[in-house]
């Protein structure tokens, strides 16, 4: 049988390289584009020099540095060789990663409220073991690498310095805890907080995670200039705000009093049917502009969009220094906040986030400079290597009933009918509302039964046409079958069984049918495919963000976990929002990351707050002024940096939307594989040459001609006996006899 082979034509400025086929497919060879401008020889020589300087290859064990360690141990010293052997063992690195994971779990399991609880006493012994393992690792590294005088020594690596700080802090904390004089020293708690840095040790040990971390660090370096300008403008606005509002954010709890000298005695408060007498107090608003430091904090809070209407109200109502507010006294002060919002949240913050995203992508592109292929070319090659041919079952006996059924279920009218039923079912689902009459609900229920019957018949017909084994080989068929099965179970339980079991979640299968519409449109299918590819690139970004949340959650538990819960609802630290457990701390941080009243949580965690009775502290000595640094740094790192990495990765995968559509991409190859399977259901790698015309008309450029290609031009292209170059599509077709 004649067959046609599809290959891509290279541009003049690229070199052709013939690649062998990965599996039998429409092509027997492929032509890749290699960038001649890439100076590979120079980069390879630089890589070799770096490897020689580092003392080995990253993939294999690094050799011992050719220097004496601590001036007493040469490279032939038996003890040093023994330590090097342990350090380069295959399972040593895995063991250290396991200990780091167990240490992190132990940190998350501590009870911050009751320090002497039985659980904490048990975990303290585990902490001794973990610290001993990390100390052993640190010591043998010092013996093998030396301290700091020669190249490649222990203290010349920033990650080793981090390990030393963490281990030393834990050892000093143990030393103070063991002495009778040091049990009440607050420094112990600060030193023990250093244990939360242990998960950072995994960054160096996971190359892909380290690559993401390096991209983040380099991104911060590249946006340092815009950050300096950002801080300069913030400082200017802070100075202006101090001049405008200094000393004017005082108020009396009795709103009828404007001066401090009058804010004395008691006043009556009417609370529904009760009348209470409360003492007048002269207070200052939580956020004010009395000095530059407080002005910077207030403006940063306003820039996050939290609490700014209240700050604006206080500014508009401000009168004179040391005098209470008067409603609407200085309405012109609202211009200050309008200008500030235009300059910062609308301009500088978005520029800063955009530069973070752009520089993050540039750092990823720089990592690809070591290769002779561009990023898109490598993505196409990776797809071609990992791709597998799609098979579509077709009965061999064309005179059988199964073959006729197969023709029916794969025909376009059948597919369009199913899509129409899904659309109608969607409309029926949208028509349900609260307060409907009983007759109306009965009609909707009966319609749902009718639609479920049709979808069940679809599954039965496809099982007959394809056979049970071939039917369940397709993921979409499995999804259809599970959806139908869930819908039938929902009907049996709710309609016939009178809800004898609460299985309301089964109604989700009704809405799940909408997902079937995603595979119909070509554009939607490409977007869905790219979305899935973006998720594949996110694990290490998610791991880095999870590490940030973990560190801040543990620090929050250590510092603010013993705060008393406010049952009256006046404080942000309550039963549903606290640092009592690791899970609650993560939920609190997630709420703060979304910008939901994080400033109120920060104020509730300041020093001088009441302690939980179980903590053993009776006075108002819980909380810490470190809450300012804690929450401001978390909001900056999380909202302005880490969460935008998601945008950077997704934009990187959706890059094809902004580039020339004639450039070949992995999504084109995915569409090609899917359409080829329709003409080659047995996945034999060949199709009849008469089918090539319709195949090219279905496939869009650059791999095909597209439906808009004129009939005469399309026939002229595919009927050429040998090669025929296309101006736009860059395709060549060969007919093999």
TrEMBL record:
UniProt-annotated location(s): Cell membrane
Membrane topology classification: Multi-pass membrane protein
Record field: compositional bias (Acidic residues): 49-58
Membrane-spanning segments: 91-109, 129-149, 161-179, 223-245, 335-360, 416-435, 447-469, 481-505, 526-555, 627-651
Repeat is among the record's keywords: yes
Reaction equation(s) it catalyzes: Ca(2+)(in) = Ca(2+)(out)
Region (Disordered): 35-64
Domain Ion transport: from-to ranges: 90-365, 412-661
The keyword GTP-binding is annotated on this UniProt entry: no
GO CC terms: neuronal cell body; synapse; voltage-gated calcium channel complex
Voltage-dependent L-type calcium channel IQ-associated domain residues: 671-716
InterPro entries for this protein: GPHH_dom, Ion_trans_dom, VDCC_alpha-1_subunit, Volt_channel_dom_sf
UniProt keyword annotations, A-Z: Calcium, Calcium channel, Calcium transport, Cell membrane, Disulfide bond, Ion channel, Ion transport, Membrane, Phosphoprotein, Repeat, Transmembrane, Transmembrane helix, Transport, Voltage-gated channel
The protein's name in its UniProt record: Voltage-dependent P/Q-type calcium channel subunit alpha-1A Brain calcium channel I
Molecular function, one GO term: high voltage-gated calcium channel activity
Top-level taxonomic group: Eukaryota
A biological process from GO: calcium ion import across plasma membrane
